[in-house]
Amino acid sequence: MGIEALAESLGKNILTTSLGKLVGWGRGNSVWPAQFGLACCAIEMIATATAGVDIARFGSEAFRASPRQSDLMIVSGRVSQKMAPILRTIYDQMPEPKWVISMGACASTGGVFNNYALLQGVDKIVPVDVYIPGCPPRPEDLLNALMILQERIKAQGILPRQ
Amino acid sequence: MTDTISRGVTVDRTGEAGAFGGELLTINFGPHHPSTHGVLRLIVDLDGEQVRRLKPVIGYLHTGIEKQMEALRWQQGVTVTDRHDYLSPPINNLAYALAVEKLMGVEVPPRANALRVIMSELTRLSSHLVWMGTSGLELGAMSMLMYCFRERDTILDMNEEISGFRMHTSYIRPGGVMADSTPRFLEMLDQFCRDMPGHVDEYEALLTNNPIWRSRTIGIGILSAEDAKVLGATGPMLRGSGVAWDLRRSMPYSGYENYDFEIATSDMCDCYGRYLVRIKEMRESIKILRQALDRLPDGPVNVDDRKMLPPPREELETSMEAVIHHFKLFTEGYSVPPGDVYVAVESGRGENGCYIASDGTHKPRRVKFRSASFVNLQALERMALNHFLADMVAIIGTADTVLGDCDR
Amino acid sequence: MISETLIVEKGVSAGDPWVTVDAPKVHEALAALKTEGYTLLVFLSCVDHLVDASRSWPARYEVVYQLRNMETREQLRLRTFIEGDPPHIDSVHDVFPPANWDERETYDMFGIVFDGHPELTRILMPDDWVGYPLRRDYPVGGEPVEFSEEHEMWQTAPDKA
């Protein structure tokens, strides 16, 4: 093969990019959520995974039962004072890089329950990347949050979390 | 002696000898486990694979709903009732609304009653659909989830049409319902009643004679009728043991005595029996929906009491009195006469009751929800003993506990 | 109906019949009612009558037992009043097994001690929780919010509420 032919064939098969973009693209399109349901929002989270809304279009249909295999924690519902340490343990068990979506009003702020039993916002114990309003949010809202998160992951690349 | 596998998960060696020459192991199951229907935690003593002791630990979803309601006015409390048993919000609303109405001595108009029945039955259907989808998923019938959530979405679309909200409708309120049904809702309901029997046939085709489903459920989790009665089980847990007790028939409310339906029972007493009961209940619910739709009476949907419900918008522009009533209702609320009352309704899980004590002020003194899951879960130990650990998933599944309902 | 010697007072509240018995006789009364056909304890709970002006209450805590006869579909509410710190009452889990968790919940939420209960521990709140949340002098808690009308009063000074 002559050198010119080689250059031509390489031009058809090689894409130049930065490593960060490549890693970001890979991570962003295969975000595996932890299968972590808490309350009402968990039902809408399940609905997001079913055929009608189909989270698989965004590469996130693999809900992992083990936190060791997941990248994303969707805090779907109210977090009680009794559940808070367990939630933090599960978050700690997830390998880096990891992200958190706070799904619904209760997870984000305590929602309608401003009382002794609930953690008033899950951001008191884990860092949250995207908040979704709604009680519970529609499945489409969760998809939207996932898309916002994907943009962030792609922008983040291989850099450590800010 | 404790082997720490990872933080939070421990296996204890009890030192007690098992029946197979080994030693009993204590393991922790949940609260974060994909097949516990939420955040239920079980401490299980295992002999090999068999369950020898079992202790449920609840409270991981304790929301303080009862305390919250003491701090809210009577009409504000409705929004909170939605969220305790989050698979059947209108039925919770109904229990609360009926209790408040009984204390105030208010009767709602016939159309409101019919709409309440329609919403209750739609909710029962959607609750059973979620149950069947998730239980199917746990026992290896993954496609059930897709089928069941398809129909559930149709029901949620109807919720949205009538109340503007998919899940927590707050549609049934003390004094009536939120708003009259729209013509489009009635069309959707009509279509739904036509389609749904065929869909139930589909589920049956997938599960009823499915060898895997049958071998995972038949003979598993036996709860005899005697035990069920003694342990206070209600709903499909009781009817699955052959006791024909359904509050809609036994102690009718909201005009259920006028509908023609059968109480679904099964004498099998096991997980399969409870499955059959739920399938039958879905068919009966469709029958009730059809009757309610055909006989939907005309008329108002709210009591004509300006002290309890706000005046219509157009009256506010012409009547000074209406403005005063409106202002009073939204700043102070109404007061309910002193006394206490208990009202029970049948939810998808069993008896969902509301006990209210009023001290005559504009806020409740005490609201207590009697939740079916809380009581039914106590029967879990009786059902799961000496079964395999994997069968416990089937038992938890068919007990259909909702932890929000259980912990409140 | 159980013998009149046990009943202190009886009446009907919004259509629900109720009877009041003395606290030490609750176990005896419930066992008698069970033999009379009230086989289901629907629920057991408590009402805190702290600063309740609607009538004069014999004591601060009212323990409520809702019973049902599954054959005749009759319902009966048994009430009893107790005082003390902590208030004590006999456990009825041996008469009605479902009372087990209900009594634990009432202990967890109101701090009522059920004598003779096999495992009287917290059930809904964490084991190390301090206080009894459903007592009327326990604040609702949470965080102060703007435009909350009376809620701040509830969070900070519940005894005035």
CATH third-level topology of chain A: Rossmann fold
In CATH, the architecture of the largest domain in chain B is: Orthogonal Bundle
Major sheet of chain A = 3 strands, parallel
Q: Count the helices of chain B. How many?
A: 17
Q: Tell me the name of the CATH class of chain A.
A: Alpha Beta
Proportion of residues in extended strands of chain A: 5-15%
Helix and strand sequence of chain B: EEEEEHHHHHEEHHHHHHHHEEEHHHH
Radius of gyration of chain A: 19 Å
Given this structure, which CATH class of the largest domain in chain B is correct?
Answer: Mainly Alpha
What pair of chains forms the biggest interface? B-C, 42 and 46 residues
Strand composition percent of chain B: 15-25%
Verbal overview:
The complex is a heterotrimer of chains A (162), B (408) and C (161). By secondary structure, chain A is mainly alpha-helical. Chain A has a single domain, classed as Rossmann fold, CATH 3.40.50. Chain A has 6 helices and 3 strands. A 3-stranded parallel β-sheet of chain A has the order 1-2-3. In chain A, helix 2 (19-28) packs antiparallel against helix 6 and helix 3 (40-49) crosses helix 6. Chain A starts with a helix and ends in a 6-residue tail after the last helix. The mean pLDDT of chain A is 87. Chain B is of the alpha+beta class and 408 residues long. In chain B, the strands form 3 sheets. A 5-stranded antiparallel β-sheet of chain B has the order 1-2-3-4-5. In chain B, a hairpin with a 2-residue loop joins strand 1 (2-6) and strand 2 (9-17). Chain B is globular, with a radius of gyration of 23 Å. Mean pLDDT of chain B is 87; it is low at 1-9. Chain C has 161 residues and is of the alpha/beta class. In chain C, 17% of the residues lie in helices and 27% in strands. Chain C has helices at 26-35, 99-110, 151-156, and strands spanning 7-13, 16-21, 40-48, 61-68, 75-82, 88-90, 113-115. The longest helix of chain C has 12 residues, at 99-110. Chain C is globular, with a radius of gyration of 17 Å. The mean pLDDT of chain C is 84. Chain B binds chain C through residues 58-59, 62, 64, 66-68, 70-71, 102-103, 105, 229-232, 245, 250-251, 338-342, 344, 351, 353, 355, 357-360, 365-366, 368, 370, 374-375, 377-378, 407-408, and chain C through 13-16, 18, 39-43, 45, 47-49, 52-55, 62, 64, 66, 70, 73, 75, 77, 96-98, 100-101, 105, 109, 122-126, 133-134, 136, 138, 140-141, 150-151, 154.
